[in-house]
Amino acid sequence: MRNFLNSLLFVLIGSLAVFPKYMMVTTSEWGSDTIPGSLSYLLKNAEKGDSIGMNIPGSDSIRIDVIGHLSITNDIAICGKNRATEKPIIINQNCFTDCGRLLTIKGVEVHISNAIFWGSGNNVNNGGVIAVNGASTKLTLDSVEISGGFSQNVGGGLFNDSGTVILNKCLVWLNFAGRMGGGICNGGSMTIVNSVIARNRASSTSNFGGIALGGGIYNEGGLVVIGSTITSNVSEAWNSSFSVDVMEYAYGGGLYALKGITSLINTTLYKDTSKATCTYNYCSAVDGGGALGAGEYGLIFLTNCTLNDNRRSSVYTDYFSNIYFLNTLVSSYNKTDFTNNPKYYKGKNNMASFVLPDDSAVFGAELPISKIYGKDTAKLADNGGLTPTVALKNTGLAVAAGTRSGYFYFDTLLNHSGSNNSVSIPIPVYLKDHVWLDIRTNSPVPPDVPVTEISTDQRGEIRGDPPCIGAFELTAQDEGVRRNTRVVHEKSSFVFISLVNKKLVVKTKASGVVELFTCTGQRLLLKSLIIADGTEIIPLPKKAHGVVVCKITCHESIITKSFIW
Question: Going by C-beta distance under 8 Å and a sequence separation of 6 or more, which residues neighbour residue 2?
Fold first, then answer.
């Protein structure tokens, strides 16, 4: 009898249990939330744990025109890939006046994949397309496009006030904000991986002075960007009429961090711009940091990154802010590329086309971009990775410079965004005398804290040996050749190699053969060493430039060393 009652109780409880449902959008008709099969109907009736998919017959570009805005009020997952066409559904805000934003998410956990969100809102202060509100809110976007957003204030495309947001393989482009964060505004915790932030704009115009910060991204929280490209974003400010003693400020065309903490890893910032303009007299314009800007207590870390062709200087810091560079390439047409407070820039193993303010840089001479990248300035292109990159030229100085890998450890830092929240952020470290040192203080990393190696470039390929500066290496066709020029030793018991006054000095205890190669394997010189226990001085060939690899075969030993010419 007892077993029977237990079984009956189990059946009754099971009949009352609510299991997650998988629901399907079957019509592109918006209508209202009373039409079964419509997106609005399913969002209204979705319960915690449910999933929503798409199966709408028609052409490849199925579009759901949303009149008004959407809200998600339960923990759900949405897959925008249309089963009927295998193409992502376009969720479009079909509205021209008083639209508000397209989608609001608050107090729930949501996963959205393979969808395109087009906004058209023109009457919203934050989050023109998507807004994430509340510290308990979690949003994951996977292969999602966000475009067409318009915000009068902050976050033209995506706004996160205090929640947790992850973007993976996403495209945020063609969004606009009236002050800060043309593409994205973050005040919580955000991680961006293998994504593109492009052609967004923070634009301020005012009769009484304006300020524009972060054309691509504006950050006041904890932000980590990995393997991504931030390109062609603009922060701009100008006065719109005759006014006396007005100021126009524009900082951080690609990214601006105010009181927030930002860590960029294997990321490219290319052709981002900040500009402030005075149309009339009695106006002052200040701009800087086409790629990056840090304000007040802003803190930015860059590891294995590339900054190229950003205008009105690449980097800007305000007082009390800091930017740290590790294994990063910064090139620009401006010789004075760091605007304001150079003492706040620190780094190791970097390269720039001007004098870096930190004496630990590999290269401090003012070099033209062509010398760093090669014969021609590298262009942003599809070089085999998930995001477009700037490919190094095999004749450039950036090849075989820096370190083979970047390294970081996670540290919990106070987020100075006006709250007491702390964020866990990757901090660059470097190795000295077999001890890991924190790039901020040059102090040892706690022995019980693991250090992570970044051994790949922005494409996900293993970084070469000899190494290369920046987030990207050579083009794919050059990669195999370059790997053959491996640096093993610079001296042995038989041979010592050095470069003095543009001449190769070889000290050897035995006869042998010396060869010089370019970094791609082209042999420049073949010379026999006929002396023993002596020194030979070898002038470098006139056509030698960029990286020269010396290979000496001596007494059954092979010794190689790279030189920058």
Answer: none
446: DSSP letter: P
Cβ pair 351, 375 in contact under 8 A: no
Q: In 3D, which of 178, 247, 172 has the Cα closest to residue 217? A: 172
CA distances from 151 to 98, 144, 344 (A): 12, 20, 32
First to last CA, the chain: 91
By CB atoms closer than 10 A (0-12, 13-18, 19+), residue 384 is middle
- Interior angle at CA 366, CA 330 and CA 262, nearest 5: 20
Q: What's phi and psi for 43, nearest 5 deg? A: -65, -40
Please give the domain boundaries of the chain with CATH numbers for all domains. Answer: 22-124 (no CATH), 168-481 (no CATH), 495-564 (2.60.40.3080)
Contact 84, 53 (CB under 8 A): no
Distance of CA 69 to the CA centre of its chain: 30
CB 397 within 8 A of CB 371: yes
User: CA 80 → CA 94, 142, 185, distances in Å?
Assistant: 18, 10, 24
Q: What is the distance between the alpha carbons of residues 164 and 154, in angstroms, rounded to a whole number?
A: 18
Tell me, yes or no, if the pTM score tops 0.85: no
Q: Please report the pLDDT score of residue 369 as a whole number.
A: 77
CA–CA distance, 427 with 411 (Å, rounded to integer): 7
The predicted-structure confidence for 443-488, as pLDDT tens digits, reads as follows 999 999 999 888 888 988 878 766 788 898 776 455 443 333 333 2
C-alpha span between 506 and 514 (Å, rounded): 9
C-alpha 342/C-alpha 319 separation (Å) is 10
What's the pLDDT tens digit per position in 23-38?
999 988 765 677 888 8
CA 279 – CA 209 distance, rounded (Å): 12
How far is 290 from 271, CA to CA, in rounded Å? 8
State the CB neighbour count (10 A cutoff) for residue 97: 8
Q: What DSSP string describes 341-390?
A: -GGGEEEES-EESS--SSTT-S--S---HHHHH-SS---EE--SSSS-EE
